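Bumping my old thread because nobody answered last time. Still need a sequence for this structure:
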């Protein structure tokens, strides 16, 4: 996105009642715990610690919002798929994230981070199931692509794209690395395009034609 490097922290919320007022288009980032979601956000924004990275799965249980300039906001969703947390914490995740995704009118796109070495786990597939009725474009980033050989990269990308296409979702699948910055510029451009499309659609809805 053209102004990604202007990112600044806005708020962290643990309850739906605390959500910021609807307004600028939001791009939500989600992924399995420790999959590299925070590192991806930091790479895209050109910041080292905008999104906090932790080695403890399930540590972050809030939705963190960041303004990235030009009237666009990022929503960093808590990681999913963590095994060593109480059932009550998992239930809270379902309520918070599920509620956000289903009710957020400002949601313009969803970015799902998956490990290129182990994409489409049971939890990843569940996330895609949640995304299907949203009618928003979905970008799957296969993170840690730098850890794969050329042959492994090609195989992982082909398999992931086939799995994604079978679910009939609008969007794309790309290899990504926050270490080598692979696809960083391309992802920024793609998200900017999706946000522009979202904005145009909402403008058209608010502006009746001459015959109306």
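Sorry it took so long. Here it is:
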């Amino acid at each position: 996105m053209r102004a990604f490097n202007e990112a600044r922290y806005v708020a962290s919320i643990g309850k739906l009642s605390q959500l910021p007022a609807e307004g600028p288009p939001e791009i939500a980032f989600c992924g399995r715990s420790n999959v590299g979601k925070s590192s991806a956000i930091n790479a895209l924004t050109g910041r080292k610690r905008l999104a906090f990275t932790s080695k403890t799965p399930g540590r972050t249980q809030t939705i963190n919002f960041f303004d990235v300039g030009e009237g666009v906001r990022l929503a960093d969703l808590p990681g999913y798929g963590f095994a060593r947390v109480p059932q009550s914490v998992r239930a809270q995740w379902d309520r918070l994230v599920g509620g956000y995704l289903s009710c957020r009118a400002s949601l313009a796109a969803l970015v799902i981070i998956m490990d290129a070495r182990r994409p489409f786990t049971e939890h990843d597939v569940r996330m895609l199931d949640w995304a299907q009725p949203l009618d928003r474009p979905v970008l799957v980033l296969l993170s840690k692509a730098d850890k794969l050989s050329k042959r492994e990269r090609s195989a992982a990308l082909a398999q992931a794209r086939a799995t994604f296409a079978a679910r009939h979702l609008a969007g794309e699948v790309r290899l990504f690395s926050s270490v080598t910055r692979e696809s960083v510029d391309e992802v920024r451009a793609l998200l900017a395009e999706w946000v522009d499309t979202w904005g145009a659609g909402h403008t058209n809805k608010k502006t009746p034609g001459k015959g109306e």
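The domain at 4-205 is CATH 3.40.50.300 (Rossmann fold). Let me know if any region looks off to you.
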